[in-house]
Amino acid sequence: MLRSSMPFAKALAAALLALSLPVVAQDSTALRTSALAATCASCHGTAGRAVNGASVPGLAGLPASYVVEQMKAFKVGTRPATVMHQLAKGYSDAQIDQIAAYFAVQKE
Ligand code: HEC
User: Rounded to the nearest whole angstrom, what is the distance from the C-alpha of residue 44 to the centroid of ligand 1?
Assistant: First the structure.
């Protein structure tokens, strides 16, 4: 009995795995993106929402293209900065795209 149900169990397991893989992949991308964006929180506020009176600007709701442009300008030094020119160098262009897309959809 056990023996004859094994092929079915294997097929079922394979089907479930195939169904769940894309979901898992999406979740881990979202997790990686929010983890990357969290590295900005200590200065720019949780989810990019600056606290009242903070001297560092918030990032929530800024257009992604603007954030990408600024990060690249910090990286190459065309936008002078106190800390961002150093920090920006630690992120790849792909990571910056991800981070910028994340902040663009956060509510201010
Ligand atoms: C150690 C504190 C600190 C961290 C961490 C930090 N920033 Fe900044 N950020 C600043 C400061 C300070 C400025 C103002 C420019 C300067 O003096 O460097 C700034 C400016 C910016 C600006 C320009 C905002 C504008 O209105 O033009 C962007 C975009 C930005 N940061 C993105 C990020 C991103 C994305 C991260 C995370 C990957 C990050 N920052 C992490 C301190 C920080």
Answer: 7
pLDDT by residue, tens only, the chain of 108 residues? 556 667 787 887 777 667 666 666 678 888 999 999 999 999 999 999 998 899 999 999 999 999 999 999 999 999 999 999 999 999 999 999 999 999 999 998
Task: Tell me which of 44, 62, 67, 108 to substitute to probe ligand 1's pocket, judged by most ligand atoms within 8 Å of the beta carbon.
Answer: 44
How far away, in angstroms, is 72 Cα from ligand 1 center?
12
Going from the N-terminus, what domains does the chain have, and what CATH number goes with each? 2-104 (1.10.760.10)
DSSP 3-state assignment of 70?
helix
pTM, full prediction: 0.83
